[in-house]
Structures are given as structure tokens and as C-alpha cells.
Amino acid sequence: MAVDVVTEIVIERPPEVVAAYASNPDHAPAWYVNIQSAKWLTEKPLQAGTQVAFTAKFMGKALAYTYEFVVCTPHQLVMQTQAPFPMQTTYTWQATPNGHTRMALRNMGHPKGFSKLLAPLMASAMRRANKKDLKALKAILEGR
User: Fold this and answer.
1) Distance CA 86, CA 16 (A)
2) Residues 97-108: pLDDT tens digits?
3) Tens of pLDDT along 20-49?
């Protein structure tokens, strides 16, 4: 069973500001509830092919995984990992009529083995975590 979770929020900052902050892996531990660290495995700047190792805690388990960035544009960022199960994370940034940003965070993956049985629970936990993450990002960028 696939996991496909999309979460959105409006941040009262221009898209280029939101994209610059959110797409920087160095900032991930500040706004992602579960991410504990991010380490660049390739040279900066961020571009297609960049690899970053993350450590996180999810559903009570410690995780270590490497994301490879495959799309890096001013309006979209796509990164993917193979372990602990194939997962693709996509950020999109769209300007609202008043110059703010509608940001979408999508996690799509295909759990393997035992994780397959937990897919519905994983989707629910991801949705909760993503909502917290986007609220934290909003608070940081809006200075609240």
C-alpha cells in the first residue's frame, strides 16, 4: 500500500523567501519536528544531484536516510530516498493574490516488508507531523 500525504499552509511571506528558507537543508532541524540533523554529503549549493544525510525520529524509531535532490526550481523542490523505504518529498510554493505563499508539502512512498502493514498508521502520523512542521515553518518565517 502506498503512502501519499499532502499538507498545505499559507505563509505571510513572499514565495522566494519561503522557498529560500525551506529548501535549505541546514534549516530542516529548526522546523521539522522529527528531524534531528542534516549533513551535506555533496558540495553546496543545492542543485539536482545534491545528497544530504538526515537523522530523525519517527513513530518512536530512530531513522537515518539520505535524500537526493532531483528538482530544484524557484517553485518546486523534489527529493527522494530509498531507505528505510522509497519515499519522495515535494515542496511547492505558489504566490497568493496578496503576495503571500501557499506552500504544499507532499510525502509519497511505498513501504516495504513489515512497514507495508503499518502504511495507514504511517500516513496518519506523517499528516500530523507535516501539519506541525508547516506551522513551525510559518512561525519562524512570520516571526511569531
Assistant:
1) 29
2) 999 999 999 999
3) 999 999 999 999 988 999 999 999 999 999
- Which pTM value belongs to this model? 0.90
Residue in 87, 89, 85, 88 with CA at minimum distance from that of residue 112: 85
Dump the DSSP string for 87-142: EEEEEEEEE-TTS-EEEEEEEEE---THHHHTHHHHHHHHHHHHHHHHHHHHHHHH
DSSP 8-class letter at 73: -
134 touches 126 (CB < 8 A): no
For residue 20, give the DSSP letter: H
Cβ proximity of 9 and 103 under 8 Å: yes
